[in-house]
């Protein structure tokens, strides 16, 4: 009888039983229980102290390195008068803490998750230009900590911040503003803690970002380490470049101001005798322009320099005020013309009376002949002067004088000149204004 056959069968049966037993044991493993055991093992009392910072790279005594990246979820408001902006973002920090290494059970545990930040060491980062901020706790606190088998720690949280943004409004509303987001260490110096931007797209922005009056042109990441009398502190910053949308201001400010200026020119075409119409038109446009200007300044902070919108509203207000003053000048010229016409009429009456007296003197006696010759001599002199005037005025006139001769009164000439001068000067102002502010250099903006 061959003894090898039962032995082989027994070996096969033993291997099969061991395999089934191993599968049964794996099926009964509770990995959540394993996570608890691992957390108790690495974070238990006397095993981990959250007050002690991690070691440097490769376990050296150098500074702990924290990599940071951001995801900008939304930018809600950008306030000109308060010089601030509100942003909601997902903030992430990642660093290596070799004290948190654990066995991943053959790759079955990818990471451990915590929701209590005080269980592990955390960087003391703060936002240096923050005015207000809050965490999100609906439905649960929007925060988590992931511990990876090699000791890497990932901290992620969703926060909303209101940050200060000092603005230069000299070119308002044709300006661009740069708003920063600054993050720095509060207590750890660069000898103990260093912040670095995560390699490969450290800042991400949601694709459908919509702002009512601005457009996010680009963003830049940089370092902003600060030195004080207590040491040097690591700092990171993000510069967000916003361009103001001009279409809103074109419709709400520039076009209405142009219309008010043009309406004020209507008085040049009204009769100079229509005093109520011209006065009411000038005063109404002036008050409307002043109200428009005050409404614009009410939505802006009081600054010590002149803004581009101040130049525009100031010049438009000057044109409207000039149209009102033009009517005052026309009214004065009209009264002067009337006074001159009355003087001419009186002079003609006196000359007619003098000529009648001269004719009557010719009929006097010879004794009065010497006295009768004087009016005749004056008449001869007057006729010679008139001939000289005719000779002088018979010189050829230029086109401007020939055209102005069609309007005999000074008041009418002032109106005619204003009809041409005001639109021409306003057009030249527009050319200079838009050339200055639209085609400016980038260096001048900075």
The description of the largest β-sheet is: 8 strands, mixed
Low-confidence stretches: 365-379, 388-395
Strand content: 15-25%
Record field, number of beta strands: 14
Oligomer: single chain
SS-based structural class?
alpha+beta
Q: What is the radius of gyration computed over CA atoms, rounded to a whole number of angstroms? A: 46 Å
- Give the distance, in angstroms, between the N- and C-terminal Cα atoms: 102 Å
Mean pLDDT: 82
Shape: rod-shaped
Fraction in helix: 40-55%
Query: Helical stretch count?
Result: 9
Following the backbone from N to C, one meets helices and strands in this order, namely HHEEEEEEEEEEEEEEHHHHHHH
Mind explaining what this structure looks like?
With 446 residues, the protein is of the alpha+beta class. Strands 1, 2, 3, 5, 6, 7, 9 and 10 form an eight-stranded mixed beta sheet that branches. A four-stranded antiparallel beta sheet has the order 4-8-14-11, with no helix packed on it. A hairpin with a 4-residue loop joins strand 6 and strand 7. Helix 3 packs parallel to helix 5. The longest helix has 55 residues. It is rod-shaped and about 165 Å long. About 5% of the residues have low confidence.
């Amino acid at each position: 009888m061959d003894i090898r056959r039962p032995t082989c069968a027994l070996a096969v049966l033993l291997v099969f039983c061991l395999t089934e037993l191993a599968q049964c044991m794996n099926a009964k493993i509770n990995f959540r229980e394993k996570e608890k055991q691992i957390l108790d093992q690495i974070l238990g009392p006397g095993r981990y102290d959250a007050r002690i910072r991690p070691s440097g790279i490769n376990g050296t005594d150098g500074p702990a390195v924290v990599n940071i990246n951001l995801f900008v979820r939304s930018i809600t408001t950008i306030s000109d008068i308060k010089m601030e902006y509100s942003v909601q973002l997902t903030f992430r920090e990642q660093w290596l803490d070799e004290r948190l290494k654990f066995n991943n059970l053959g790759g079955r545990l990818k990471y451990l998750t915590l929701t209590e930040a005080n269980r592990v060491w955390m960087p003391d980062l703060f936002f240096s230009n923050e005015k207000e901020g809050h965490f999100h706790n609906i439905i649960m606190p929007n925060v988590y900590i992931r511990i990876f088998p090699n000791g890497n720690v990932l901290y992620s949280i969703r926060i909303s911040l209101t940050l200060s943004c000092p603005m230069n409004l000299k070119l308002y509303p044709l300006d661009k503003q740069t708003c920063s987001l600054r993050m720095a260490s509060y207590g750890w110096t660069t000898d103990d803690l260093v912040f670095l931007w995560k390699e490969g797209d450290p800042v991400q922005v949601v694709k459908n970002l919509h702002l009512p009056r601005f457009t996010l042109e680009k963003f830049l990441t940089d370092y902003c380490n600060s030195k004080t009398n207590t040491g040097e502190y690591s700092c990171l910053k993000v510069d967000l470049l916003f361009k103001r949308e001009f279409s809103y201001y074109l419709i709400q400010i520039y076009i209405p101001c142009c219309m008010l200026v043009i309406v004020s020119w209507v008085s040049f075409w009204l009769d100079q005798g229509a005093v109520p119409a011209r006065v009411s038109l000038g005063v109404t446009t002036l008050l409307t322009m002043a109200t428009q200007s005050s409404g614009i300044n009410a939505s802006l902070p009081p600054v010590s320099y002149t803004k581009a919108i101040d130049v525009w509203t100031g010049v438009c207000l000057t044109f409207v005020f000039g149209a009102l003053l033009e009517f005052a000048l026309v009214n004065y010229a009209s009264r002067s013309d009337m006074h001159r016409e009355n003087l001419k009429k009186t002079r003609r009456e006196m000359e007619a009376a003098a000529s009648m007296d001269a004719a009557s003197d010719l009929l006097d006696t010879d004794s009065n002949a010497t006295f009768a010759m004087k009016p005749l001599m004056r008449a001869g002199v007057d006729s010679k002067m008139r001939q000289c005037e005719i000779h002088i005025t018979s010189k050829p006139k230029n086109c401007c004088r020939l055209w102005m001769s069609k309007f005999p009164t000074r008041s009418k000439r002032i109106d005619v000149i204003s009809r041409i001068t005001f639109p021409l000067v306003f057009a030249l102002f527009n050319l200079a204004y838009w050339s200055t502010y639209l085609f400016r250099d980038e260096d001048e903006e900075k």
